[in-house]
Specification:
TIM Barrel, 47% helix, alpha/beta, globular, 6-stranded parallel β-sheet, 14 helices
């Protein structure tokens, strides 16, 4: 069975000869950039370089998928956020917000033609042409809750869930159109599945806030975006996984702050699970013994797609991810 088939069947919890391996977030490290010969920040602006670096997730690490959107900034830059695109060892960051909570968000009509968006679409098309039906191509969009952080600031957005909840709901309704438009464009470019990054973790969002502000939007995304969706949220999400399960998201990309067995129990038998391997204890600092033990644990707990919990630290050795893949391949 081809890696793409293993990955996509694992998203649907269908039988496969082994668990899938991969990630819905960035697997780029400084030493992987040196191996490929393409570097941050250039790859955020050059589709061919972006695709070449993403391809190394399969060709160098061995994952069953590739994912070329390494930052959190592409669609946010296209709708007016100011971005520092970082350095070889620093991820991009949003440094300027275009809106206040009382403002009506206006999505530019040429949003999908913005350079920050087009580079990602072109990279997906390059990867699809290169890998065809051999390797899964995964795109990435951000959900409306996280886009709210980006366009207003975390502080302003969160305080207004209390002070002005109707304005927050209005913003979510507007911003989810960015998620849908960018997601559909990535599918048209060749993406087989999409990561929906939405940071509704416990330290930023209560389970009640997820239920009241976000759950409906996530359910709507499932209905409007015609491919498997992988919800990614960092941190301890144990108290909201049952709500996430009800949205219809195909997969949850979970953080190691949720114990692996607990994540499997909470996700139930329909929602697939990805990730859960600690970026720091295993991906950055792991030994052959601890990496192997982590892989065995993930297999024992029936994690469908085994890999890092989130975007890997840039100073991690990419070979640790390769060792994790090799452990998963063992019978």
């Amino acid at each position: 069975m081809k890696p793409r088939d293993i990955f996509l069947k694992s998203l649907r919890r269908e039988p496969t000869p082994r668990p899938a391996t991969g990630s819905a977030t960035s697997v780029v490290t400084v030493d992987l950039m040196k191996k490929v010969g393409t570097y941050f920040p250039d790859v955020h602006h050059d589709a061919q370089k972006m695709a070449d670096l993403a391809a190394a997730g399969h060709t160098e690490i061995g994952f069953d998928n590739v994912m070329p959107l390494f930052s959190v900034c592409h669609e946010s830059a296209a709708i007016g956020c100011k971005v520092d695109w970082g350095k070889i060892d620093i991820m991009p960051a949003i440094i300027g917000r275009p809106y206040k909570i009382q403002d009506e968000i206006r999505i530019p009509r040429d949003f999908l033609s913005a350079p920050e968006v087009q580079v990602a679409l072109d990279a997906i098309a390059i990867l699809k042409k290169r890998f065809g039906d051999e390797v899964a191509v995964v795109g990435k969009v951000f959900g409306p809750w996280t886009l709210g952080y980006h366009v207003f600031s975390v502080e302003e957005f969160l305080i207004n869930t209390i002070l002005a909840p109707d304005l927050v709901k209005r913003a979510i309704a507007s911003l989810k159109e960015v998620t849908v438009a960018f997601g559909k464009a990535q599918i048209d470019a060749g993406a087989d599945a999409l990561c929906v990054g939405d940071h509704v973790t416990r330290d930023l969002c209560s389970p009640e806030a997820y239920r009241d502000f976000v759950k409906e939007a996530h359910t709507e995304l499932v209905g409007r975006i015609p491919c498997p969706l992988i919800l990614h949220t960092c941190g301890d999400t144990a108290d909201r996984i049952p709500y996430m399960r009800e949205t219809g998201m195909a997969c949850f990309h979970f953080d190691s702050k949720v114990p692996t067995a607990k994540a499997r129990e909470l996700a139930g038998e329909k929602m697939s699970l990805m990730g859960g391997t600690s970026n720091f204890r295993i991906i950055r600092e792991g030994t052959s013994e601890t990496i192997a033990a982590d892989g065995r644990e993930k297999k024992a707990c029936r994690i469908d797609i085994i890999g890092p919990e989130c975007a890997v630290p840039l100073d991690a050795p990419y070979r640790n991810m390769k060792m994790l893949v090799e452990e998963v391949w063992k019978s």
